[in-house]
Design brief:
The chain has 72 residues and is mostly helical. 57% of the residues lie in helices and 0% in strands. It has helices at 12-15, 25-43, 48-65.
Length: 72
């Protein structure tokens, strides 16, 4: 098994690029976190329906908790 230079699926260096400016930092990190989490779940061979259901649950909790930021 060869090592991927980007690290495991969903690792921060593979999702957020260094050396670039971010306009909405908190929202960008939130989206990258969700995308990385989805990548990790797909790497575990979970179905798209399972991944989307989990993502929807997290988004509903964020809305319920009143966190700032737009809905993804």
């Amino acid at each position: 098994m060869r090592d991927d230079p980007r690290g495991p699926a969903g690792a921060v260096p593979g999702v957020l690029r260094s050396g670039t400016g971010v306009l909405h930092e908190a929202e960008t990190v939130w989206i990258a976190m969700l995308d990385g989490w989805a990548a990790q779940q797909f790497a575990r061979n979970l179905s798209p329906g399972t991944v989307e259901a989990r993502r929807a649950t997290v988004l509903r909790f964020r809305q319920f908790a009143g966190s700032s930021g737009s809905r993804v």
